[in-house]
Amino acid sequence: MAARNGKSGILEKRIDEKPVKVDKWDGAAVKNSLDDAAKKVLLEKYGYVENFSLVDGRLFICTVSCLFAIVALIWDYLHPFPESKPVLACCLFTYFIMMGILTLYTSYKEKNIFLVSLQKDPAGMDPDDVWQLSSRLKRFDDQYTLRVSFTDGKTKQTREAEFTKSVGAFFDENGTLAMNQYEKAVSKLHDSLASDKKTK
To answer: How big is the chain by its Cα radius of gyration, in Å?
Structure first.
């Protein structure tokens, strides 16, 4: 059933609330479950469309790297070493260059972004607004930071909002995610940016 949010005026959908249970001492599992739940809020509650361009960029770099490795393998099979030495050296050098590019891409382009979604203009006239989710949970730390970023399709201006809370605020003693409580926290960030959008 759909319900209208009074703050943002956006038609919302009910989220599939299957219980999520993780090992609460496993930081990676905790972070991934919170990330997945936040992604659900934007995609299922607000009906945004996921954009895979950021992931596609990483896959493209990895694919090119693998192609050089495959070329080196085939060439060495057809022209056994040492005849294949120049081609192997070239492919090896290029492979490490691509790995360096991948490191820069994940560090400065992807950062900690785990979702890029598009808010389509109902009339189909204006460019899509872009919503991004990124998070951070340091090793051996319980403080989880979720950042929501909004980029206006027309003005290209970006606004951000974030919260930092203990993961214990969203998980019970058995490691089950309190989805209702977490959904409210994510929606509050989203709605604060959506409200700013309407007042501009």
So the answer is: 22
